[in-house]
Amino acid sequence: MERPIAVRPRSSTSGAEAGETSLTLLERVKTRDGDAWGRLVGLYTPLLRHWFRRWGVRPEDLDDVAQDVFQAVAVSLEGFRRDREDGSFRGWLHGVARHKVLTLLRRGDARGPGGTDFYERTLLLPAPAVEACDDEERSLIGDLYRDALETVRIEFEERTWHAFWRAAVEGHAPATIADELGVSPAAVRQSKSRVLRRLKEVLGEPAGTPDAADDPRNA
Q1: Which residue from 102, 131, 171, 213 has the highest number of Cβ atoms inside 10 Å of its Cβ?
Q2: What is the 3-class SS of 97-129, one letter each residue?
Q3: 156 backbone dihedrals φ, ψ, rounded to 5°
Q4: Does residue 44 sit within a domain?
Q5: Torsion of CA 95, 101, 107, 109, to 10 degrees
Q6: 70-113 tens-digit pLDDT
């Protein structure tokens, strides 16, 4: 008889495996969870700095502008809804960052990137939904998902994680993994889907949007 691949029951004695993991990272941030806020900042700062460099922000201003963006996020995060627009937190953050850079430029803030020419170029940047990712950004997004995977791993029992990893990361056929675990190929595919779905929930990404998480081998 086929053994089901199931989600690991959450312990009532471990905070990391109980209520904390039942919430997405963004939901925890909204509750003023300091650890979650630190995690959010750590996950997304490299991507923010990359966007700033691409937009021409001076190296010495990167940290200050990032701080300004996270302050704006702290104030306006309640306005983010996954069911609006493209539903992507990363896309929403991109918009917040771009708006903050433009605001600094319009104010002539010394911490912002300088120069009228850059100001004009920045105003013509494409919208977040159509701005193409370069190789560095794709690599940073891969790092983002890889770090987030470590966050969600404790929520799944070992066989579920093994099935996901062998299928999504190592690229083995579901039938091969099913033979190893004594389950059906469908159960393997379901394990992969569960982990990826949870990963996107934690990061505030829409479940149906193709992304680096759909093939962690690209991460």
Answers
A1: 213
A2: HHHHHHHHHHHCCCCCCCCHHHHHHHHCCCCCC
A3: -120, 145
A4: yes
A5: 150
A6: 999 998 888 776 545 456 788 889 888 988 888 777 766 544 44
Q: What CATH number does the domain containing 80 carry?
A: 1.10.1740.10
| Shared-domain flag, residues 108 and 190 | no
* 58, 59, 63, 69: CA torsion to nearest 10: 40
The residue from 123, 153, 169 where one domain ends is 123
With beta carbons less than 8 A apart as the criterion, state whether 164 and 192 touch.
yes
Query: Is residue 106 domain-resident?
Result: yes
Q: Quote the mean pLDDT of the chain.
A: 74
Domain count, the chain: 2
Query: How many residues are there in the chain?
Result: 219
**Each residue's pLDDT tens digit, 139-160:** 888 888 788 888 788 889 999 9
How far, in Å, CA of 86 to CA of 91, rounded?
Answer: 8
Q: Is 22 within a domain? A: no
Can you give the residue range of the structural domain that contains 42?
A: 32-123
